[in-house]
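Table S7 (text form). Paired inputs.
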Amino acid sequence: MNLSNVIDNLVRKPFRKRLFKKKIAPFRNKHKGESCIIMGAGPSLKDLPVEVLKKFTVIGTNSSYKHYVPDYNVIVDAQFSWLDEALKALRNKGGVTFINLIWNQDKRKLREKLTKNDIELFHFETSADHSMANVRLWNRLSDVYNNPFKIEEGVTSVTSVVPEGAIPLALYMGFDKIYLIGVDFTNSYGHHFFKDDKEDLKKIVENEKNIQNISNSSKGLWEMKIYPFELISYSKNKNKIINLSKISEIKTIQKKSIESFINELKGY
């Protein structure tokens, strides 16, 4: 990091935190008592019919908008090729994009893409140097799972797994039931519900190699990505979060089959 970046961080960090708190405040308990679906971009996303998604408020993550344009979209990997398309899709629907620019080299250029309705996420920079050894970060995320209003302090995510940042946001919005689909953690079926294009796949591989160099083992990389979800099992809000993916490797979040989920909907 060069000197100008250091100065920028020192000057802007408190300002950005205050700005984030001000912009996110209107969403506090906005959907109190409602149910939502969080879409990851894993293969199981294709298992949930679009007609079902239309019945819910939907929070997308990164490129999941390609399957269904959500009401809210959380974008962490803003360097990917689909960013302009994702922003446009949400605006056309009247949705809101929550976007993290911390990892990107040309933040000024990316900020120029945003409108007043887009909210720049303030959260910890969580590249490979923030591994499982950094207990303080994990504890902060655990606090947010228990007390989602701490998201106003800027704690939204501690790894590169985007749904892990979307869950505290959903809790902050007051949703009483949060259903996950496409949050799979399996490479057996591919990375995404769509065919990875070469540019994005290259970035995925590069990101995982960078983390791999720090964690020193595939097990370390796996644990780094999946561990934040395991924190949910210790949260007072754990019963609000339900995983609909039958192929998901997350063992600590309660599961429900898509079939039973749809059958329950028919009863209303």
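Next pair, protein 2 of 2.
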Amino acid sequence: MLARYFSWFAYLPIGIILLMAFLGLSHFNHDISWHLLQDTYIINILSFSIQQAILSSLASVVLGYLSARILFYGQCKKFRKIFLSLCLLSFILPSFILISGILSLFGAQGILQPWLPADWQLYGLSGILIAHLWLNFPFALRIFSINFQAIDHTSWQLARQLKFSRWQLFCLLEWPRMRASFFGLLGLIFLLCFNSFAVVLTLGGGPKSSTLEVAIFQALKYDFNLGEALILSWLQFGIASLAFLISLKLGKLVWLSSGEHQAPSIFPVSRFTFFSSHIFYIGLCLIILLPLIALLMQIELSDLVNYAWLSLLEPLVYTITLAGITALLAFLMTSLFLPTFTSTWQNTSYFLACIGLLTPAMVIAVGVYAYLLGKQVSWFTTPSLWIILINTLLTLPYLVNQVRSPYIVYHQHYNHLQRQLKLSFFKKFTIATQWLSPYWFIGTLVTFLFALGDVSVFAIFGQSDSPTLPWLIYRYASTYKLADAAITSWVLLFICILFVFLLEHYLQAKYEVSIYAKNQST
């Protein structure tokens, strides 16, 4: 009981950072001109932010569902596990890697430039939509593919016996299974695109195609207009909170699954459908890989020879160190949270742990920045500390969501036995950690990968003489040093591929453990 009360103190760092952010947003002694909300510039930014987020999320989810349906009914099972890993990689991939690939494809000196229309413009809404589709469409495809495979075998058999049409299959079998994921995906991808920073910063092309997140950064870093930055932050927080609550009400999303289960072939497939579906499958693989292939094609031997490899070492170590400490801190905080997930206030504890999903990164970063500035705290001497603390808050939900449900199941099964054995708190913690080890590892890896690609927090607190790898890629890409950007992107990509391989390995281990437990229970 004492341990459970002690666990609530682990929420103090979250509370302190959020309090600093909101005090910074609320009570900074600059004159905040609320009439800016009626300014045409602000209205245009708000309108464009919502417009591009709606278009990106709808296109990603609808195309993801249709593609998953084609692959499922076409019985495209070859290399399925590798394909789903590729889809996961594209979602976890730091945005600037993909942006460098898109610039290599569609930019002024891009590979596809000779075949594009004369009036083609990458910068603006078209470029933002292309980047968001490449980031989020494979993720939606992975979710729907796993959901198709998870539909019960007996349901397919019954549908075949009753001779369901395609429409009946959709209404009675597919949609009930997909509905929660559909709206959950729609809400999540809307939030990701609405809060998009790296993509819009690089491919926006100017004020006409700017979002709230980028406008906040520009107001703070270039115009030194803190009042405008604070107003935009409140505006973004309000809309993001509303979107998050709506998506939470309409849908539920479980996106980290091995996808190992293979549904048996129920419906006969014609030769034409089989071959056309497999051609479509190959085409999808090529489309997803195209930006990465373009990055490779951008690199020549002379570029590799002339690249400043020694200057890459410091940003590489700095990036991995920041992400590693962030993941470790998230692990320690989540391990302290565990007893609160089975307490009377478990919903409150879950909300507090996941508040990083609710609050945009730029809003927290700007709020803390404004608070420190108002208190005349010299944060310039410790920028890494604030980057780690804020990123821990932002990435914590990914770890919590992996560990919370298994821990509740573990607690229900073994809590009574542990009480009878009168085990100490340390012994209970050791046993629980071993039992939850696959979930711990998966969640910590995901936290590390998301922290690895951080741009928003570094944009506020980072220093130009000590860049992270994503920021170094942005610096090269924004100055049209595409070969240097490509080489740096591939270094970061190699790290991501390595960790995604480990992630899939542990997802497979988790799947085998769940199958074993299911067999034992029956």
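DSSP finds 23 helices and no strands in the chain.
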